[in-house]
């Protein structure tokens, strides 16, 4: 969470430009929604729905690994009211661009519009390599060893933080769309204190 907060402060500030805000939102949503790259890259505006009281929003995931019936999965993301509120950052990002339709991808590559003198959406999907490059650039910017990070790191970080906060395994597995507890466990990293507690409790 500390790393994410640093990224959001650096890339999601009030005067952030388009590419910075995209990096901030991509990192935040992959963290709080436990998104895989292939889930994040296919999110369209039409996949987003909002609570009328602004308490949360929903992300519809058309295809998930635990979705044997191919009905899609829906992830609920709470509005926190903090400086790093996912709903607040999402609205800022959406309001920054002109969107062609409700089928527009949320995360797109940019092209430079010479008439507007700024980056605009290209309509093309953000590639796996490009998305990982943005994550690594963000990690490098906050002083981390960038090459060990990627979208999967954000997913793992979110699941680990949820487990440390006492969220039930069942909810973590459902929220992250894991097929089984063993798949989920591969992402959750135990803290040193938790690992030490096993032997400490034996004597």
Question: How would you sum up this structure, described in words?
Answer:
The chain has helices at residues 2-11, 18-32, 37-40, 86-96, 128-141, 151-164, 169-175, 181-185, 192-200; strands spanning 48-50, 56-61, 73-78, 108-113, 118-125. It is globular and about 55 Å long. The longest helix has 15 residues, at 18-32. The chain has 9 helices and 5 strands. It has 203 residues and is α+β, with helices and mostly antiparallel strands. Helix 2 (18-32) packs antiparallel against helix 4 (86-96) and helix 2 crosses helix 6. A 3-stranded antiparallel β-sheet has the order 1-2-3, with no helix packed on it. The chain has a two-stranded antiparallel sheet with strand order 4-5. Strand 4 (108-113) and strand 5 (118-125) form a beta hairpin.
């Amino acid at each position: 969470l500390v790393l994410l907060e640093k990224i959001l402060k650096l890339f999601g500030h009030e005067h952030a430009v388009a590419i910075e805000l995209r990096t901030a939102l991509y990192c935040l949503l992959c963290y709080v929604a436990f998104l895989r790259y292939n889930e994040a890259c296919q999110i369209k505006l039409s996949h987003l729905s909002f609570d009328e009281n602004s308490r949360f929003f929903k992300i519809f995931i058309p295809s998930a690994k635990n979705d044997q019936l191919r009905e899609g999965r829906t992830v609920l993301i709470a509005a926190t009211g903090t400086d790093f509120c996912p709903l607040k950052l999402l609205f800022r990002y959406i309001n920054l661009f002109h969107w062609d339709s409700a089928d527009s991808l949320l995360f797109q590559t940019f092209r430079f519009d010479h008439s507007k003198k700024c980056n605009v959406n290209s309509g093309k999907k953000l590639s796996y390599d490009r998305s990982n490059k943005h994550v690594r650039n963000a990690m490098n910017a906050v002083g981390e060893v960038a090459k060990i990070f990627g979208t999967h790191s954000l997913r793992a970080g979110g699941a680990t933080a949820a487990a440390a906060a006492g969220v039930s395994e069942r909810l973590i597995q459902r929220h992250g769309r894991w097929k089984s507890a063993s798949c989920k466990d591969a992402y959750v990293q135990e803290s040193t204190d938790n690992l030490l507690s096993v032997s400490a409790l034996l004597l």
